[in-house]
Amino acid sequence: MELSDVDALAAAEEYLAVVATTRADGSAQASVVNAGVHPHPVSGEPAVAFVTYGRAKLANLRRRPRTTLVFRSGWRWAAVEGTVELCGPDDDLPGADPSRLPELLRSVFRAAGGAHDDWEEYDRVMREQRRTAVFVRPDRIYSNPA
Length: 146
Hints:
alpha+beta, 7-stranded antiparallel β-sheet, 146 residues, Pnp Oxidase, Chain A, 28% helix, 7 strands
């Protein structure tokens, strides 16, 4: 399975994915996010990306920068495991231009199926909530048999 297959599966269910991070005690913390395939902002390589402000998710990802996302449509599912890189107001990504963060957050949001009627309002909310873009460089992609 390739990232293009994951993206097609994600599109079938409005780009919803379960994301699992690891707590300090080793247990999993899971939540649902909108995520899609997006070029890494520095390397340009395809990655799975989403925007978050979740305190638990971000704290876990900052301490243990690995995650698994699972997308599903009907009985079909795909998992993407990988290393995480963060780009946000509290998370500098080496090589990324901080002044382009609003544009990057919009781009990741659109890649995850999002649309907005007022991008200035979107940018304001992202800034106030200190939203961060999460990029997952896939180490492993797997799914159930077709």
